[in-house]
Amino acid sequence: MIVVAETGSTNDDMAALAGSGASEGLWLRAERQTGGKGRAGRVWSSQSGNLHISTLVKRQPGDPASHTLALVAAVAAHAAVAELAPAIAVTIKWPNDLMVEQPASGSAKLCGMLLEARGDAVIVGFGMNVTHAPEIEERTTTSLASCGARADSDAARTAEVLAEQFARWLDCWRREGLDRIRQAWLKAAHPVGTSLRVLLPDGTQAEGGFAGLAADGALLLMGRDGRQVVIHAGDVFAL
Fold first, then answer.
1. Count of CB atoms within 10 A of residue 201's CB?
2. CB 89 within 8 A of CB 103
3. 95-111 per-position pLDDT tens digit
């Protein structure tokens, strides 16, 4: 694992390493990011003490579809948190946000992920709130520390556990196929029937009850009219 004190974006750095011939399984962690990014071009708060890390997956013949690595990343991060903070209940929000339900403020974001394709490689970036819960407009956040994680759960230890879990679930994705990952994802997700609102890429919205995942990993919503809606991209909010 490469560790740097500061960088713009670990995803950008990993993409450069991939272009230079880096092998699958390489990890890059930054103590601080100055240009962290989330999905849809959002800025990702990157405070020192939190985890900012990226890894590299090289496409192989017979692999499931690349976009389903988002589910692999979510399941791996969920398993890592379960090891580091077993007392807290963490759920996955489609496709790969980790959320913690808080009595006073509702659902709070603990971890987000950003996947980017680069030729035959996929860069998988993780941002996890380990010691700090950043203030983000219109978003409630939390951290491992505030949720009662083990005392040794600093960014370095969290990175080690995450890397171990990601290797495990990536191997499962390749050997057993997407359905095994899909089942693990569903087990960790919010209950079927949870009311969701999805902001779609074209600016429109869809609402309905969570109805699981399609075979290809797409989000399924059951609309109020009883018709099922298939969502391939969008921002999901619990209602």
1. 10
2. no
3. 989 999 876 667 899 99
Amino acid letter for position 179: D
Assigned token pair, 25: 């399984």
205-213 and 219-222 beta bridge pairing: antiparallel
Q: What's the predicted TM-score (pTM) here?
A: 0.91
Strand 27-33 to strand 2-7: parallel, antiparallel, or no bridges (unpaired)?
parallel
Instruction: Map tokens 């990702």 to a residue.
Output: 44
- Cα–Cα distances (Å) from 147 to 88, 108, 159, 222, in that order, read 7, 11, 18, 32
